[in-house]
Amino acid sequence: QKTYHIAVIAGDGIGKEIVPQAQAVLEKVTRGKADIRYEDFDLGAERYLRDGAVLPDEDLDRLKQQDAILLGAIGDPRIKAGILERGLLLKMRFELDQYVNLRPSKLYKGVVSPLANPGDIDFVVVREGTEGLYAGAGGSIRRGTPQEVATEVSINTAYGAERVIRYAFQLAMKRRRRLTLVHKKNVLTNAGDMWQRLVDQVGQEYPDVEREYLHIDASTIFLVTEPSRFDVIVTDNLFGDILTDEAGAVVGGVGYSASGCINASGTYPSMFEPIHGSAPDIAGKGIANPTAAILSAGMLLDHLSFEDEAASIERAVEDDIERSGSTQRSTEQIGRDILSRL
Ligand code: IPM
Ligand code: MN
């Protein structure tokens, strides 16, 4: 039996409530097959409010030694926007070179979509995770004066775009072999042109994958008028951020959306997290839905090559949603119900 070291960052708000449910599911499906060792990391709002630390080098070094990271949620209304986002979440994505932000959207049976005619929705957004407008290039001068200048520069490297595009093609080969590049190449003529050329170039190696291009604005329309057309969408960091929130809404709310921040070259651990936030309004009440965290644990197992176990988690969640998805249940009850289907 191989040993796996998993970092657990339960984080803030409902993160602390949902992560134990995901851990219980992980334990159950790997029993007798893998020896899972958890290491808890005290990161997030409470740590910051207590000692001002966001992500000290010492914690980052320890994170680098893990096989994977399970994250609950980060965020607290008492802390100024940007501190934890940039200092913790984005810092981990960048420092651990998690260049594939993998975000599947599936409309499960029994979940009500806000769309009148949703059809079969089952697609994955492959969002670039380390560059674009998130990279932190730019600055501000004359701050607070009428002459203030503020810039954010979108960083797009051929290296960074190509590797995520290649990942998207490989994923499309395992799925319905359809890849949509989303960008805004009619306006962003430098980066858009480069992304398109790289998609065409890498696409030569995957002749069985059908390619299409959509502008970001048009894609937000198609996501609500014809979501079943999508299989794999590849896009940059900010477009991917926006599109995956919309995707979450279309499949019945981000409560069912899991994600992986993946370092596909394996140099550092990948991180798995629900797309939703820390939900301070319902934190501490024991009513948060742990489904997205449980699905994230499934993605983590898939990443560690436990494909069958990952598939069994998804099936258990699907069953659970189909039979009791719309009934009011506590966090623990949902966790127990899903466990009992495994
Ligand atoms: C997400 C979040 C983050 C992002 C924020 C919290 C930095 O919205 O994971 O989608 O923009 O990537
Ligand atoms: Mn987001």
TrEMBL record:
<dbReference type="GO" id="GO:0009098">
    <property type="term" value="P:L-leucine biosynthetic process"/>
</dbReference>
<protein>
    <recommendedName>
        <fullName>3-isopropylmalate dehydrogenase</fullName>
        <ecNumber>1.1.1.85</ecNumber>
    </recommendedName>
</protein>
<feature type="region of interest" description="Disordered">
    <location>
        <begin position="319"/>
        <end position="342"/>
    </location>
</feature>
<keyword id="KW-0460">Magnesium</keyword>
<comment type="pathway">
    <text>Amino-acid biosynthesis; L-leucine biosynthesis; L-leucine from 3-methyl-2-oxobutanoate: step 3/4.</text>
</comment>
<dbReference type="InterPro" id="IPR050501">
    <property type="entry name" value="ICDH/IPMDH"/>
</dbReference>
<comment type="similarity">
    <text>Belongs to the isocitrate and isopropylmalate dehydrogenases family. LeuB type 2 subfamily.</text>
</comment>
<keyword id="KW-0028">Amino-acid biosynthesis</keyword>
<keyword id="KW-0464">Manganese</keyword>
<keyword id="KW-0963">Cytoplasm</keyword>
<feature type="binding site">
    <location>
        <position position="127"/>
    </location>
    <ligand>
        <name>substrate</name>
    </ligand>
</feature>
<keyword id="KW-0520">NAD</keyword>
<feature type="binding site">
    <location>
        <position position="103"/>
    </location>
    <ligand>
        <name>substrate</name>
    </ligand>
</feature>
<dbReference type="GO" id="GO:0046872">
    <property type="term" value="F:metal ion binding"/>
</dbReference>
<keyword id="KW-0560">Oxidoreductase</keyword>
<dbReference type="Pfam" id="PF00180">
    <property type="entry name" value="Iso_dh"/>
</dbReference>
<feature type="binding site">
    <location>
        <position position="245"/>
    </location>
    <ligand>
        <name>Mg(2+)</name>
    </ligand>
</feature>
<feature type="binding site">
    <location>
        <position position="217"/>
    </location>
    <ligand>
        <name>Mg(2+)</name>
    </ligand>
</feature>
<keyword id="KW-0432">Leucine biosynthesis</keyword>
<dbReference type="GO" id="GO:0003862">
    <property type="term" value="F:3-isopropylmalate dehydrogenase activity"/>
</dbReference>
<feature type="binding site">
    <location>
        <position position="93"/>
    </location>
    <ligand>
        <name>substrate</name>
    </ligand>
</feature>
<feature type="site" description="Important for catalysis">
    <location>
        <position position="184"/>
    </location>
</feature>
<dbReference type="GO" id="GO:0005737">
    <property type="term" value="C:cytoplasm"/>
</dbReference>
<comment type="subunit">
    <text>Homodimer.</text>
</comment>
<comment type="function">
    <text>Catalyzes the oxidation of 3-carboxy-2-hydroxy-4-methylpentanoate (3-isopropylmalate) to 3-carboxy-4-methyl-2-oxopentanoate. The product decarboxylates to 4-methyl-2 oxopentanoate.</text>
</comment>
<dbReference type="InterPro" id="IPR023698">
    <property type="entry name" value="LeuB_actb"/>
</dbReference>
<feature type="binding site">
    <location>
        <position position="217"/>
    </location>
    <ligand>
        <name>substrate</name>
    </ligand>
</feature>
<feature type="compositionally biased region" description="Polar residues">
    <location>
        <begin position="324"/>
        <end position="333"/>
    </location>
</feature>
<feature type="site" description="Important for catalysis">
    <location>
        <position position="134"/>
    </location>
</feature>
<feature type="binding site">
    <location>
        <position position="241"/>
    </location>
    <ligand>
        <name>Mg(2+)</name>
    </ligand>
</feature>
<feature type="domain" description="Isopropylmalate dehydrogenase-like">
    <location>
        <begin position="5"/>
        <end position="338"/>
    </location>
</feature>
<feature type="binding site">
    <location>
        <begin position="277"/>
        <end position="289"/>
    </location>
    <ligand>
        <name>NAD(+)</name>
    </ligand>
</feature>
<keyword id="KW-0100">Branched-chain amino acid biosynthesis</keyword>
<dbReference type="InterPro" id="IPR024084">
    <property type="entry name" value="IsoPropMal-DH-like_dom"/>
</dbReference>
<keyword id="KW-0479">Metal-binding</keyword>
